[in-house]
Amino acid sequence: MELEQAGQFEIEEATLFTSTGNVIPIQSSIVEVAIYESIYSNSVMGELQIINTIALQNEGPFIGQEYLSMKIKTPTVQDETFKLKFDENVFHITKVSRNYEGGAEILTFEFYSSELIHNQRTLISRTLRGTYHEMVESLLRKDLKCKKRLYIEQASDTKEYIANNVRPFDIIKNFAKHATALHHGLSSFVFFENLRGYHFRSLQSLYSEGSRFNYFEVATNTTAGDPSEPGTNNDKINAKVTKDLGTLLGVKISSNNDTVTTQASGGLSSRLITHDIVQKKFNVNTYNYLDDKNLQKHGIEKYATRNAPQAGRIKDAPLYSSSEVDEDGNRISDFIPVQYLTPVTTIKNKSGVYKNSQYEVYNGNKKETEYVFDPVKSENTLQKRRSLFTNLEMGLNLELWVNGQTTFGAGDMISVDIQKESKHSDDRKDKFLRNDFLVKSIKHVFNNANKKHHMYLTVAKDSIDEELEEVDHIEPKPVKQQPLFSDDHFYGDITGYDEDGKSAESATSNIKSDFPLRSFASRR
C-alpha cells in the first residue's frame, strides 16, 4: 500500500486468542485502537474497540484472560523496528466491557504488555550483585522472560541489593533512582517501554539520538495538502504528505516555568547533609541550579545537535534569569528552601578509595575481606536528579496533536518550531517554543472508520538556546512601613484604626453596604 495521505495506517494483523483455545481474527471488526506509551510507564497499554455483529462473546468467551496479537504500520515503512509489531510478543487483555451504540454491540478490551503481567506474578527474594545495568538485564531476561529489544545504558556503580519479596519492576525503578551513567556521571535514568522495546537509560542518552522529526505551524488560513487532487504525480503526493505529517494540527502549552513549585521541590537549590556513621563525620553539599556547569554540558541542545550542522553553535541556557532579585545580590537560586539529611557508611579500601562498609566480600584466594561496592552518592542521585526532573516537569511542556506515524515513540526527540509575531526581531520563531523537545508520552489513536491515525504528544524541555539577559530585577518594595495593630485595637475602644486614619463618623456616611466595617461596629 502506498502512503497517499498523512495519518494513513494499515492493520496487517489483529487476532484474539481466547482462554478456551479459540483463535478469532478481528481485523475487519475493529472500530478503534488506542495505544499509550510514556517514559514514566513500564508498560505499553491500550484499548481496543470492536463491533460485535456475529455474537463474538459466544466464540470466546471474553473474560479478561485473552491474548491480542496485532501488527500496525505506516504504509511504505519497511523497517520492522518502526512498525507497531506485537504478533510474537502479544498483549494481555485484562478487562472486557460491553456497550450498545446505535443498536450495535461494542466490545472494549483493555490490554497491557506481557511483561507487566509477568511482573505482577513474580516476587524476587535473593541477593543481586553487579552493576546496575547488569542487574537490570538479568531481571528482564531471566525473571520476566523478556525477548524484546533492550536499550540499556552502562552505569558506573557496583552494588549489592538484597531483595525480599520485591517485584522486578519495583527493583528496576529503584535502580533508576540511584544509577549514575558511566558516560557522563549524571543520575538521570528512566525505565520505560515504548513500541520498540524496553529502555533503562539516562535522559542524556535519549537526547543524544537527535531529532527524529520536525514539526511546524502552518501559516494562517492555510490547509494541509489534498493528495486526491486529480492529476497529482507521485512527487507532488510525497511533498504534500511530508508537509501534512509535519504540520501541527493543535498546540497547547501545558506548563511554563512554575517557579513556586520548582523552588519548593528543590529544583533550583538545596542543601544536603551527609552523615557518615563509620567515619564519624558529616559533609554539607549545596546545590545551585544557576551555578551548575553541567547544564550546558548535558542538556538537550548539547546532545541533540552534536552531529548536526549547528553543533557547537546552539547551547543550553537556563529557563531562569540570573538577575539579582534582592538588595543583597541574591539570584532566584541562591536561597535554600529544601534541606536533606542522609546517612552513609564508608570505609577506605587498600587503594584509598571509599567503598560501602555495609557490604563486605570474602576473597578466598587472598583469604581476606574486601569492600567492593560503591557508597550512595546522594549529591548526584538526590540533589541533581531532583533538580533535573523537576525542571523537566515544571519547564516548557507542550501538548501536540499531529497526524500519526510509527517512526518515533516516547523517549525520542523531535523538533518543534512555533511562529511568533514580533515587531522587534527578524527571527520569526518563538525562542522558547523551538528546536528540540523530548517526547514524554504518546497516545496513538487508530480510527478504522475514517482510516486515520492521530497522535497526541506530550513533549518537554528544560532549557532554551539563548541565555536570558541579566537586568536590574530587584523586587520593588514600599518605603513607608505600615502601623502595627494589636490587642488595644482589637479589644479596646479605639475605633476606625484600620480605615486609613478616617474617623468613624466621616467614613460611615459613604458606606452603601448593609455590612458595616469591622471597626465601626457597635461595641458592647
Task: Describe this structure as you would to a colleague.
With 524 residues, the chain is α+β, with helices and mostly antiparallel strands. Among the domains are: 258-386, no CATH class; 487-520, no CATH class. 18% of the residues lie in helices and 33% in strands. The protein has 12 helices and 25 strands. The strands form 6 sheets. Strands 1, 2, 3, 4, 5, 6, 7, 13, 14, 22, 23, 24 and 25 form a 13-stranded mixed β-sheet that branches. Strand 24 and strand 25 form a beta hairpin. Helix 3 runs antiparallel to helix 4 (168-178). Mean pLDDT is 84; it is low at 225-234 and 503-512.
Q: Over all CA atoms, what is the radius of gyration?
A: 30 Å
Secondary-structure content class: alpha+beta
Residue stretches low in confidence (pLDDT < 50, at least 5 long) are 225-234, 503-512
Average pLDDT rating: 84
Report the sheet with the most strands, covering strand number, pairing sense and barrel closure: 13 strands, mixed
The shape, in one word, is globular
Q: What percent of the residues sit in helical stretches (DSSP H or I)?
A: 10-25%
What share of the residues does DSSP label as strand, in percent? 25-35%
What's the N-to-C terminus distance?
90 Å
Put simply, the count of helices is 12
Oligomer: single chain
> What's the count of strands?
25
